[in-house]
Design goal:
The chain has eleven helices and four strands. It is mainly α. The strands form two sheets. The protein has a two-stranded antiparallel ribbon with strand order 1-2. Strands 3-4 form a two-stranded antiparallel ribbon. It starts with a helix and ends with a strand. The model has no long low-confidence stretch (mean pLDDT about 90).
Length: about 290
């Protein structure tokens, strides 16, 4: 426990300056790229941990394009912060090109490659890279720039609230196992508790933003919908990564964070909700202009 606490404190102190300097301040300003550089570095490490889990980290035919994507797309999201539609088009085209490339790897290295592993690493790395890139998209908030400083924190607040209260609710009231084959300790009661407290936290977050800053107006309907769906999706994201670890017989994805495991172990539930929140915010903004 001591190691976990020390690691958490050091990580928060180390990350805080990047979050503080996360504003999109203009393409000509070096500070414009500080935040996406951090996200790109985290995405790269998580991609490595995933590849290592699947024993593909030294398969450079597969690994190198994914490493490049992990580094490029969070940065590109900031470079194209005011051209989100073009960014999405580039992302979709890149996915199609990557699919064709991996098909070619399977064909021309037939008998040397495990197509099942390649399919799994493509699906999961796409999820990881796309989700981290979505954090930058949330921070950019080209539609309402003032909202970006509140939006990009929501995946972390919602997922960590869900994790914490699902744990405590499960310990206090848990009687029915959720999916024991994947995660023996998780319960139905814990999952419901995590959802309820996440919705409450979403509303509380809106109240705090309005009271403390007052530069945006919270949309509580959107926050309730977002809190509900984010809690469900974050638990699915956690369970998916647990299933992969269980399938490949490992406890943690890495050792980057002593006492916690790898970066992917800490961000598995958070990144699950980023794209969801971008989607909801596109059609039902969480915050509107005052």
């Amino acid at each position: 426990m001591k190691v976990r606490v020390i690691t958490s404190i050091v990580a928060i102190i180390g990350i805080f300056p990047f979050f503080w300097l996360s504003d999109p301040v203009g393409l000509g300003n070096p500070l414009h790229y500080v935040f996406p550089l951090l996200i790109a570095a985290i995405a790269f490490v998580c991609t490595y941990e995933l590849l290592h889990c699947l024993a593909l980290d030294k398969n450079y035919f597969v690994a190198v394009p994914l490493y490049l994507a992990a580094l490029c797309f969070p940065m590109l999201a900031r470079v194209m912060y005011d051209q989100i539609d073009n960014y999405i088009r580039i992302a979709i085209l890149s996915v199609l090109v990557l699919i064709i490339y991996l098909f070619a790897v399977i064909v021309f290295r037939f008998g040397k490659e495990d197509s099942g592993r390649i399919a799994l690493v493509f699906m999961t790395s796409l999820y990881v890279i796309g989700s981290f890139s979505a954090i930058v998209v949330l921070r950019n908030s080209a539609v309402l720039p003032a909202a970006g400083r509140y939006l990009f924190l929501m995946p972390f607040i919602f997922s960590w609230t869900t994790d914490s209260f699902a744990y405590f609710t499960g310990r206090l009231f848990g009687k029915h196992k959720l999916i024991p084959q994947v995660s023996p300790k998780k319960t139905v009661e814990g999952a419901i508790g995590g959802i309820a407290f996440c919705v409450a936290t979403a509303c509380l977050y809106g109240l705090i933003v309005k009271a403390a800053f007052g530069d945006v107006a919270p949309n509580y309907i959107a926050l309730i919908i977002g809190g509900l769906l984010a809690s469900v999706v974050s638990q699915i994201g956690d369970l998916v990564m647990s299933a992969i670890k269980r399938q490949y017989g490992i406890k943690d994805f890495g050792i980057f964070l002593p006492g916690h495991g790898g970066l992917l172990d800490r961000f598995d539930s958070s990144i699950a909700v980023t794209v969801l929140l971008v989607l909801i915010n596109t059609y039902i903004p969480f915050f509107t202009a005052v």
